[in-house]
Write a structure and sequence with these properties.
Rossmann fold; single chain; mainly alpha; 3-stranded parallel beta sheet
């Protein structure tokens, strides 16, 4: 079971590559927390057109929203308030369900490791695309260029994506 954070959904939506997330995680369904869904609605209300692609998959039942339980809400209180509500809520749900959290925030990954939640970041997701033969390295480089242009995201280095010695 995989939960995707708003940042990763928005990145893949902006470059029109949302279907790759289903392929990378070998999943028919992707999951979000209710707070992430609210963040997406806020983006749509602000006129961010890329959200329409995410919400279309949500309407088709391919992206499923999970509500936090009372226990999740109690667990969220133990997480740093410096994390966003969507991140804390998703971490709590992932902890309870033993699910994987996909986020591009280093601090999220740090806290996930600390509390034993499997967390995958953008670089690891992009690496899987070529390592598992889903795309070529050239295709992944094109996606990276699209991400830089359309999301204004800067990669410090692409070594974790392409360097064979990095795991």
């Amino acid at each position: 079971m995989v939960f995707i954070d708003t940042d990763v959904l928005s990145i893949f939506a902006k470059v029109q590559r949302l279907p790759l997330l289903f392929t990378v995680f070998n999943a028919d369904l992707l999951n979000i927390s209710s707070a992430v869904e609210r963040e997406l609605h806020t983006g749509a209300d602000k006129g961010f057109n890329f959200v329409e692609h995410v919400m279309a998959l949500h309407a088709q039942g391919r992206i499923v929203t999970y509500q936090p339980t009372d226990a999740d809400q109690q667990f969220m209180k133990t997480l740093p308030w410096t994390l966003g509500l969507g991140e804390r809520e998703t971490m709590a749900i992932c902890k309870r369900l033993g699910a994987v959290f996909v986020s591009n925030e280093r601090r999220v990954k740090h806290h996930c490791l600390r509390i034993q939640i499997d967390c995958v970041n953008l670089a690891e997701t992009l690496r899987v695309l070529w390592e598992f033969g889903i795309l070529t390295q050239s295709d992944v480089r094109i996606i990276i260029d699209d991400i830089k242009a359309k999301d204004n995201l800067r990669f410090r280095t692409t070594d974790p994506i392409f360097n064979e010695s990095v795991t």
